[in-house]
Amino acid sequence: MAAPVSRKIMPARTDCSTKPPPSTQLLRKWLSWKKDESWFRALLVLVLFAGFGTIAPPTVEAGCRRLERKACEAICVRSTSPSLAGGGWNCELRVVLIMPANTSFEVSLPRVQPVLEKVEADIRQRAIIPRNVSIRWIPFDDRCEQARATVMAMDGTGSEVCGHVILGPTCDFALAPVARIARYIYNDGIPVLTGAGYTFDFEEPKTSCEHEFHMLIRTGLVSFKRMAYFMIDLIRHFKWKRVVYFYDRQSYYNVAGPQTGHLLMNTMAEFFRHENITYSPFATDSARTNLTESLKEKVGVNYATPVNG
Predict the structure, then answer these.
(1) Is 247 helix (H, G, I), strand (E, B) or coil?
(2) Which long-range contacts (CB under 8 A, 24 or more apart) does 29-36 make?
(3) Which of 11, 36, 91, 273 ranks highest by number of CB atoms within 10 Å?
(4) What is the CB-side half-sphere exposure of residue 131 using CA atoms within 13 A?
């Protein structure tokens, strides 16, 4: 059971015209989008919650790594000109985009950036964020590579850029190292938001610093774990006892990068074992014969039901 939460009795308001705090106003507007909002708009507002302290809940100490806070980590700094809108504050939310520039990938910089700009314009039209808060999109091409994505994350959070939140990476192998080190960047870590992260490891608990992907926020609805349980339900429905799984290790490269098929098979195998399903994986891209011969060799009569003609 969760520990009881102490509550303070607050004095009643005497001024009924007092507006609710900015975070409450934002939540109400977000919930009002239930009928007409797009997921990208919701994602951008989530970015604002993750990075913009003035409209998000009170900040907390992440405690993963104690560091001295840099001046550039602040989103709002007091201006020397108090006549500026916003009470003399300059505010800039810096969003680091880490994804491929190559449009052969389903999610790439040339495809995502125009959408983010349209969503930002829509949010500004709805007055979701204060007018004096600017948003700077800082793109990095990771080429869907692990090492390059890691370096891009370090560049995007260094003193020259000092990003407040990372959007991406969108390839699973590139996402893993970035999501691991995010908890140790800055004193409180840096949020990593992505629509990817299909492998079951990314769905493990993330509630404490001991968890591998503590700062990762997955916004996608599809994962390999869900696909595995769909296959398990199908197997149970038809009362099949054994399964031979044909797959191409590099299939769906355009969705999640290198070895997407291999990662999917690993997830399938993990949950087939949990359900005590006998399976035999076979990588078609490593076969020495054509697919017809491979079917005869791997399936044969062991995984097929003979039918007398």
Answers:
(1) strand
(2) 29/126, 29/128
(3) 91
(4) 6
pLDDT tens readout for residues 173-187 = 999 999 999 999 998
Helix axes 109-125, 39-51, angle to 10 degrees: 80
What are the residues whose beta carbons fall under 8 Å from the beta carbon of 115, sequence distance 6 or more? 40
| Helix axis angle, 39-51 to 22-31, nearest 10° | 170
Rounded Cα distance, 231 and 246, in Å: 13
Would you tell me the crossing angle of helices 172-181 and 146-156 to the nearest 10 degrees?
A: 40
Q: Which amino acid is at 28?
A: R
Q: Is the Cβ–Cβ distance between 50 and 193 less than 8 Å?
A: yes
Residue 46 pLDDT class (50, 70, 90 cuts): low
The per-residue DSSP string of 212-240 comes to TTTTEEE--S--HHHHHHHHHHHHHHHT-
- Provide the token pair at 214: 């503590």
Q: Which helix (H) or strand (E) holds 251?
A: none
User: Quick one: pLDDT at residue 132?
Assistant: 84
Report how far apart, in Å, the C-alpha atoms of 234 and of each of 158, 246, 269, 280 are. Answer: 49, 16, 15, 17
Pair type for strands 76-78 and 89-99: antiparallel
Cβ neighbours of residue 155 closer than 8 Å, sequence gap 6 or more? 140, 161
Cα 198 from chain centre? 10
Name the 3-class secondary structure at 138.
strand
Q: DSSP character for 200?
A: G
CA 159 to chain centre: 24
Beta strands in 6-141 (DSSP E): 76-78, 89-99, 133-141
Which of 30, 156, 145 lies closest to 99 in space, CA to CA? 145
* Mean pLDDT for the chain overall: 79
